[in-house]
């Protein structure tokens, strides 16, 4: 049974798993062709939303990698971005001369990822690529494209598979459109 705040399921657990497997094959092939120094890519997950996607990604990824995480906030618990990214948890390793793959749950405005890319290049990263499970081009406030994306989505408020409303609903095993008409009077 679906959660009462689910208006419609967009992508099931099986659809997500299949698409992530395809993405990891494409990405591993890209890195194999580019003969990276040390044959390793640094995956950086942006917490908290990336957790289910990152776990699924790692399960399928057939290329040498390291993993790190950052907490960068631009959403303040609601349904709209504040537009001002802030690094709450930085990396514990140097990114100098590294090939980085940012693993993100969704690209909406693009502001946070643009900020992170500039920050990582400033820190000396050699190359930065982006993979996102969901791409919402209509939400863009700046010019930014993912190098790989799982699914393109409409400009709706989404929940599940890492996407939240007020830090809840991340654990739904699918991606769904939230019934925002219920949020005003919703009691947890």
SSE sequence, one letter per element:
EHEHEEEHEEEE
Q: What is the second-level CATH architecture of the domain at 14-33 and 40-73 and 87-155?
A: 3-Layer(aba) Sandwich
- How much of the sequence lies in strands comes to 25-35%
Strand order of the largest sheet: 4-3-2-5-6-7
| Percentage of residues in helical conformation | 10-25%
Can you count the beta strands? 9
Can you tell me the overall shape?
globular
End-to-end span in angstroms? Answer: 17 Å
Largest sheet: 6 strands, mixed
- Class of the domain at 14-33 and 40-73 and 87-155, according to the CATH hierarchy? Alpha Beta
The number of distinct helices, counting runs of at least 4 residues, comes to 3
How confident is the prediction overall: mean pLDDT? 92
Assembly type of the shown chains? Answer: single chain
Look up the CATH topology of the domain at 14-33 and 40-73 and 87-155: Rossmann fold
Name the structural class.
alpha/beta
Structure description:
- The protein is α/β, with parallel strands linked by helices.
- The protein has a domain at 14-33 and 40-73 and 87-155: Rossmann fold (3-Layer(aba) Sandwich).
- It contains three helices and nine strands.
- A six-stranded mixed sheet has the order 4-3-2-5-6-7. A three-stranded antiparallel sheet has the order 1-9-8.
- Helix 1 (13-33) packs across helix 2 (51-60).
- The radius of gyration is 16 Å and the shape is globular.
- The model has no long low-confidence stretch (mean pLDDT 92).
